[in-house]
Amino acid sequence: MTEPRFTPLSEASRQALIAVRDSAYAPYSRHPVGALLIAESGRHYLGCNVESANFKGLCAEAGAISAMSAQGEREIVTLYVIGPGEHLCTPCGDCRQRIREFATPDTVIVVLDGDGTPLKHYTMEQLLPDSFGPENLPPA
């Protein structure tokens, strides 16, 4: 399998990603997360996690996907995820399935450290092997 290719973040995009992460509402976990999604059009969509007292929060990746979908776009080219520290902050299981819904085999998911330096990158197959997707359902 070939390694996925991705374009490094510009300084402006890196700063926007750090800013959206720092805007996260995470009073319970104290684990702010930001996501920056680049759609097929080249437009960028940002999201941050938003927690609630009932523990049914919104993940950063879900927020970015929602922003993309609200603009009528349906394909993720690259998704960057940033947590607060030096360790991997990979998408949760629910978000892996959400990303899968809008991913192609060429989609790249890049996990950054708290300063915005890439730690690891994945294809959708690497992130969610043998996944279930729209093609597994009968036609509508």
Automatic annotation (TrEMBL):
Which terms does the record give in the GO molecular function aspect?
cytidine deaminase activity; identical protein binding; zinc ion binding
The CMP/dCMP-type deaminase domain extends over 8-135
Checking InterPro entries in the record gives: APOBEC/CMP_deaminase_Zn-bd, CMP_dCMP_dom, Cyt/Deoxycyt_deaminase, Cyt_deam_tetra, Cytidine_deaminase-like
Q: Per the entry, which co-factors are needed?
A: Zn(2+)
Show the active-site residues.
E61
- List the NCBIfam families hit by this protein, alphabetically: cyt_deam_tetra, PRK05578.1
The name on file for this protein is: Cytidine deaminase
Species classification: Bacteria, Pseudomonadati, Pseudomonadota, Gammaproteobacteria, Oceanospirillales
